[in-house]
Write a structure and sequence with these properties.
The complex is a heterotrimer. By secondary structure, chain A is mostly helical. In chain A, about 75% of the residues lie in helices and about 0% in strands. In chain A, helix 2 packs antiparallel against helix 3 and helix 3 packs antiparallel against helix 4. By secondary structure, chain B is an all-alpha fold. Chain B has 2 domains: about 80 residues, no CATH class; about 55 residues, no CATH class. Chain B starts with 6 loop residues before the first helix and ends in a 20-residue tail after the last helix. Chain C has one domain. In chain C, helix 1 runs antiparallel to helix 2, helix 2 packs across helix 3 and helix 4 runs antiparallel to helix 5. Classes of the chains: A mainly alpha, B mainly alpha, C mainly alpha. Chains in contact: A-B, A-C, B-C. Chains A and B meet through helix 1, helix 2, helix 3 and helix 4 of A and helix 1, helix 2, helix 3, helix 4 and helix 5 of B.
Amino acid sequence: MEMLETFAAHYNYFITIFLMISGLFIVIARGNLIKKLVGLSLFQTSVYLLYLTPAKILGGTAPIYDESYKLYSNPLPHVLMLTAIVVGVATLSLGLALVVRIKEAYGTVEEDEIFAKDPEAE
Amino acid sequence: MIGTPSAEAFVMAVLLTLLAAVTIAIARQRNMFGVVILASIYSFLMASLMIVLDAVDVAMTEASVGAGISTVILLTTLYLTGSMEYPQRRSVAIPLFVSIVVGAALVWGTIGLPAFGISDAPIHQHVAPTYIDFSRKHDMPPNIVTAVLADFRGFDTLGETTVVFTAGIGVLLLLQGGWRIGGSRRDEETEGDDEI
Amino acid sequence: MRLDLILRVGAKLILPFILLFALYVQFHGDYGPGGGFQAGVIAAGMVILYAIIFGVHAAKRIAPPIMVEMMVPMGVAIFTGAGIAGLLMGNNFLDYTGFAHDYLHAHEWGILIVELGVLVTVCGTMVAMFYAFVQRGRS
């Protein structure tokens, strides 16, 4: 019973870790560069969750001040993650721009074929 | 929280399970168009989850950035690169093993964290109450996230804005520069720039 | 022949409201959820929607590429300018206390200027990135 309670109290963290290792798996296992970038952004999103989960207080409210509420969730992780999301899409675009250039130079976005065409990368 | 199952925790559990399901679908999907649309669904689910987690500002950003802009950018990239992923030629055993080992280590570390949603966790004791009390005392803007973002931690935000600026300049250099490695075609717009 | 009549008319109906919503999110960010980052992305989304439906050339008439590219560094300059203005008034970098006669007004002004800088950079960067990807053409 105690194990079940621990599981319920940490369910958010477990799903966060699942998303994280899924992103890691996609980055390592898939050869398509765009899919790798999607995996990387999955990993990044799981980090948002990792920050936002501890910030929540059950029974609290969003950190917008009002006379009738006393308990607020922690605003600091929200600030950090808000900027991280916009920076995340900017860096994702930078990665995609590199993929477009790779496609133009090698004619493919599959990692194996790029290695085959580029003997120095072996 | 334990023993008093609230509606919040239930909604959160449902959304988290859906997120995990969408993630599995993304890993298995071969058609890149499908992957991009699934990633968009993932972002909307994540935004809903952020609302339940009380992070309304972050949810708004995730809904507009994750499901809007990044989907558009990914789709334009697919237009430029083609949308099918080739069948996998190498084994997934080693990546799976690495992921599971990393995941097991993280789960082992997570057990020691404080339970979800309790108000006396260490994270709620030090910096955040200072921000909340200070902005209440000085009649700062009611949205504490905005006050922290632009005022208390303006330096952070300046750094993040600079990163966005740098990434934008990088994309423009990569995609609008006149030079092209090993390419034969040249853009009409960059006619007259020096060749490599 | 235009088969996408409904799309075009519908887009013309909602586009001004998207821009209005971006401005609402920007200036109401002190009181509700929102701020420069979200408003910038929503405004960029309006330009991108216009480009998707009416073509990139039409979009470049309402948001010329040179203006968009100027916006990318301009926002950082506004932000840094607010910081340096704090320095010149004898306070720390990014301390807005000297901007107005009392503490609350000074910080309201400071937050407004800083959020404007964020809006300009984010909006400019997103639209510039979109233009860069779109005009690359299939190779």
